[in-house]
Amino acid sequence: MILSRLQCKGVGGTVRLLLYSSVMKAKLKKPNKPVRSSEVPATSGMLYEMEGHLCHRMDSGFRKMESKMHDMGAELRAELKLATTEAVHQSEARLIHRMDAGFHEVKSELHRVALLVEDQNAKNRYVLDGYTQLYEIIMQKFQA
Fold first, then answer.
1. What is the Cα–Cα distance from 11 to 118, expressed in whole angstroms?
2. Which long-range contacts does 65-73 make (Cβ < 8 Å, 24+ apart)?
3. pLDDT, tens digit, for every residue of 35-67?
4. What is the pLDDT of residues 99-144, one digit of tens each?
5. Is residue 118 within a helix (H) or strand (E), and if so which, with residue range?
6. Could you tell me if 34 and 40 are in contact, meaning their C-beta atoms sit under 8 angstroms apart?
7. Dihedral over Cα of 7, 13, 16, 21: its sign
8. Contacts of 2 (CB under 8 A, 6+ apart)
9. pLDDT given for residue 65 in this prediction
10. DSSP letters spanning 55-99
11. Whole-angstrom Cα distance, residue 71 to residue 63?
12. Which residues contact 34 (CB under 8 A, 6 or more apart)?
């Protein structure tokens, strides 16, 4: 009834009236009682509480992740330190083996030189004995 009188006023009034009447109908209807908890309307206080709860849970998760990352970093540092000390020990062992090999080589050269010196000394005795005999022969000829 009210709708028919206002339609005569123009198109804009009709749209406003239709919107107004749908709002009035929604207000006049009794709201349905929610059946499930998901259908219960939330207040702004409830939303703020939920936001705080979610923020704390996220912070907790981030802190757990930071803790795990810190632990993993510590483990990696320990493994790296162990690996470097093992590598140092291995390189030291290789160096010691090379130095031992060098010492053995020097010892063998020293023994070789000692043999050569002894051999030369033995040859020198024969030469010195020959020189001594030659000297004695020459001295005998000059004294005679």
1. 134
2. none
3. 676 676 777 788 888 888 888 999 999 999 999
4. 999 999 999 999 999 999 988 888 888 888 888 898 899 988 888 6
5. helix 44-143
6. yes
7. negative
8. 17, 21
9. 93
10. HHHHHHHHHHHHHHHHHHHHHHHHHHHHHHHHHHHHHHHHHHHHH
11. 12
12. 40, 41
- The DSSP code for 9 is T
118 vs 96: CA distance, rounded Å? 33
Written as six digits, the tokens of 13 are 């009034």
Tokens representing 116 are 């050569």
pTM over 0.85: no
SS3 41: coil
Structure tokens at 128: 């010195």
Is-contact 14 7, C-beta < 8 A? yes
Q: pLDDT band at 32, cuts 50/70/90?
A: low
CA 96, chain centre distance (Å): 31
Report the distance separating Cα 37 and Cα 47, nearest Å: 14
Distance CA 98, CA 109 (A): 17
